[in-house]
Automatic annotation (TrEMBL):
Domain of life of the organism encoding this protein: Bacteria
Keyword Cell membrane among UniProt keywords: no
PANTHER family in UniProt: GLYCEROL KINASE (PTHR10196:SF69), SUGAR KINASE (PTHR10196)
Domain Carbohydrate kinase FGGY C-terminal: start-end pairs: 257-447
Gene Ontology molecular functions: glycerol kinase activity
Gene: glpK
One Pfam match: FGGY_C
Protein name stated in the entry: ATP:glycerol 3-phosphotransferase
Keywords, alphabetical: ATP-binding, Glycerol metabolism, Kinase, Nucleotide-binding, Transferase
Length: 516
C-alpha cells in the first residue's frame, strides 16, 4: 500500500505548528514557529495576521520536507486555531486593515452594553451559549468598525471581510475562499446555537453587515483545496482548537471530557446532541460535527490565563529563561510560603465572568522568594481548574471520574501533581499530548475516509502518565479557602479601582432585543 498522511495546521495563541500524522495517529513531522505578541496598552493583546500567514505558508512545506513526504502523499489538511481572535481584511487586496484583536484582549470590557445595543444578557446567552464578556469576536468587530467611520463605510459597501484565524488562513491557503466552521462561529456571539446560522437579530445588535461574514460549514468536510503553501491538498476540516482537542482525546461521546493547558486552559465536556445550559458559569458551545451529521454540543469552562502567567514570569519579570524552568524553580521550595497569585490578566473568565477583576499577588513578606512565586503560579493554574471542575460537576449532576489533560503545560509534572491534589481525581495524560493537532488531523482524515469512522481512532489513545492526590482533605480545603478569598479580593480590588467599568446597568427583563 502506498504511503499517505494527513496534515494539521494548529494556529495557537503563541505559535503556529504544522504536523503530519500517519494512519496509526503517529506524528511523523512537526514544524513550529512563534509569532509576536503585542501589548500596546494595558489589557490589549494584538497579533499581526499577515505575520501569522507568512509563518504558516512556510511551515507547511517545511513539515513535508523534514519527513521527506511528497505533497501528493498528503490526503487531507485540517486547520485548527485559537478561537475568537478577530481579523478584518480588504476583500480585493487581502491586506488586514489593522492588527488582529486577540481573544484575551479586554478593550471592549467596559463598553459591552453599548457594543451590543444593551440587549438583554440572558437573551444573548440563550441564543448563543455565551456570556456577555470581552471574550467573543462580535463586540471586538463592532469596536473596530465603530472606531473608524471610513472602515464602517467600506464594510457596508462589502469591501471588507471578517474572520477568525481559521477563516483568515483558509482565505490565504485557497486564494479567496471565505468560510468558517460551526465551532468557530459559535464563539462570535453572532451565531444562533440551534440553527447554526448567522442570526439577523444578533447582527443588528452588533451592527455587523452580513456581507463581511464567512459561510458557516460543518467542521468535518472538504471545503476546498490549497493553492498556496503547498498547492493541491484538500482542506478536510476546520475546527476551533479546544473542540479539536476533544476529538484528539477521542472524547467522542456524551459525558466524555478533556482539559487543555496552553496559553489559557479549557475544560470541555461533550454533551452530545443536547444543548445543556449552564447554571454555574460555563459556556455552551458547538463540538465538531461532520457534514450530514446532527450538531453536537459541549459545556466549556474557559480560563483566560494559564501558560500566559508562565510567559509573563519569563518575559516581563525575567524570573525564568524558559517555560519548563518554572517547575525547577517551584521545586526549590516546599510550599507557597503563604503567597497566592490570581492571574486575572483578562478579568476572570469561567466560572466567574468578572471583567473587572485584576491580577493580584497576596501574602508577600520578606520570607517570600522566587520559588514561592513559581509555586503560586502553578497553584493558580490548578485552582482555576478546580473552579471550572466544580461548576461542571454542578451542571452535569455528577463528579468526574478522572481528568484527561493535554497541551504544552502538561509537560510540567509538578503542575499535573498539583492539579490532582486540588481536584482529588486522577489526572491522566495521553502519549500524544498535542491533542489539538491530532484532533484536527482526525477531523481532516475522517472527511476523506482516511479513517472509516471515529471508533477506529480510539485504539490510538494510550495513557502515558497518571497523577493522584497526595494531600489530605483538610490541607486541600484550607488552601481552597485561601484561593477563594484571593479571588474575591482580586474582584474587589478591580472594582474598587474602577479600572474597567462594566458599562450601563443590564436589564433584568428577558426578551428579544430592539432592532436598529
Ligand atoms: N514545562 C512547562 N511548564 C509550564 N508551562 C509551560 C511549560 N511548557 C510550556 N508551557 C506554557 O505552555 C504554553 C504553550 O502551550 P501551547 O499548548 O503551545 O499553547 P498555545 O496553543 O496556547 O500557544 C506557553 O504559555 C508556555 O509558557
Ligand atoms: O491558543 P490556545 O490553545 O490557548 O487556545 C485559545 C482558545 O481557543 C481561546 O478561546
Amino acid at each position: 500500500m502506498s504511503r499517505s498522511f494527513v496534515a494539521a495546521i494548529d494556529q495557537g495563541t503563541t505559535s503556529t505548528r504544522c504536523l503530519l500524522f500517519d494512519r496509526d495517529g503517529r506524528m511523523v513531522s512537526v514544524a513550529q514557529r512563534p509569532h509576536q505578541q503585542h501589548y500596546p496598552r494595558p489589557g490589549w493583546v494584538e497579533h499581526d495576521a499577515a505575520e501569522i500567514w507568512r509563518i504558516t505558508r512556510e511551515l507547511l512545506p517545511q513539515a513535508l520536507d523534514d519527513a521527506a513526504v511528497d505533497p501528493g502523499e498528503v490526503v487531507s489538511l485540517g486547520v485548527t486555531n485559537q478561537r475568537e481572535t478577530t481579523v478584518v481584511w480588504d476583500r480585493a487586496t487581502g491586506e488586514p486593515v489593522g492588527p488582529a484583536i486577540v481573544w484575551q484582549d479586554v478593550r471592549t470590557a467596559d463598553r459591552l452594553g453599548e457594543l451590543t445595543d444593551h440587549v438583554d444578557e440572558s437573551w444573548l446567552a440563550e441564543r448563543t451559549g455565551l456570556p456577555l464578556s470581552s471574550y467573543p469576536s462580535g463586540p471586538k468587530l463592532r469596536w473596530l468598525l465603530d472606531g473608524d467611520p471610513a472602515l464602517r463605510e467600506r464594510a457596508q459597501a462589502g469591501e471588507l471581510l471578517f474572520g477568525t484565524m481559521d477563516t483568515w488562513l483558509v482565505w490565504n491557503l485557497t486564494g479567496g475562499l471565505h468560510v468558517t466552521d460551526v465551532t468557530n462561529a459559535s464563539r462570535t456571539l453572532l451565531m444562533d446555537l440551534r440553527t447554526l446560522a448567522w442570526d439577523p437579530e444578533l447582527l443588528a445588535c452588533m451592527h455587523v453587515p452580513v456581507s463581511m461574514l464567512p459561510e458557516i460549514r460543518p467542521s468535518i468536510g472538504v471545503v476546498g483545496t490549497t493553492r498556496h503553501g503547498v498547492p493541491g491538498i484538500p482542506i478536510g476540516a476546520l475546527v476551533g482548537d479546544q473542540q479539536a482537542s476533544l476529538l484528539g482525546q477521542t472524547a467522542f461521546d456524551a459525558g466524555e471530557a478533556k482539559c487543555t493547558f496552553g496559553t489559557g486552559s479549557f475544560l470541555l465536556l461533550n454533551t452530545g446532541t443536547e444543548i445543556v445550559r449552564s447554571t454555574s458559569g460555563l459556556i455552551t458551545t458547538l463540538a465538531a460535527n461532520a457534514e450530514g451529521e446532527p450538531a453536537t454540543y459541549a459545556l466549556e469552562g474557559s480560563v483566560a490565563a494559564a501558560g500566559s502567567l508562565v510567559e509573563w514570569c519569563r518575559t516581563s519579570l525575567g524570573l525564568i529563561r524558559t517555560a519548563p524552568e518554572i517547575e525547577t524553580l517551584a521545586g526549590t521550595v516546599a510550599d507557597n510560603g503563604g503567597c497566592v497569585i490570581v492571574p486575572a490578566f483578562s478579568g476572570l473568565y469561567a466560572p466567574h465572568w468578572e471583567p473587572d477583576a485584576q491580577g493580584t499577588v497576596l501574602g508577600l513578606t520578606s520570607y517570600i522568594e522566587k520559588g514561592h512565586l513559581a509555586r503560586a503560579v502553578l497553584e493558580a493554574v490548578a485552582w482555576q481548574t478546580r473552579d471550572v471542575v466544580d461548576a461542571m460537576t454542578q451542571d452535569a449532576g455528577s463528579a468526574m471520574a478522572f481528568l484527561a489533560v493535554d497541551g504544552g503545560m502538561t509537560a510540567n509534572n509538578l503542575l499535573m501533581q498539583t492539579v490532582a491534589d486540588v481536584l482529588d481525581v486522577p489526572v491522566i495524560r495521553p502519549m500524544m499530548a498535542e491533542s489539538v493537532s491530532l484532533g484536527a488531523a482526525y477531523a481532516a482524515g475522517l472527511a476523506v475516509g482516511y479513517w472509516s469512522d471515529r471508533s477506529v481512532l480510539r485504539s490510538h489513545w494510550h495513557r502515558a502518565a497518571e497523577w493522584r492526590s497526595e494531600v489530605t482533605a483538610d490541607d486541600r480545603e484550607r488552601a481552597y479557602a485561601a484561593w477563594r478569598d484571593a479571588v474575591a479580593l482580586s474582584i474587589a480590588w478591580g472594582r474598587g479601582q474602577g479600572a474597567r467599568r462594566q458599562g450601563p446597568p443590564r436589564t433584568a427583563e428577558v426578551g428579544a432585543p430592539a432592532i436598529h
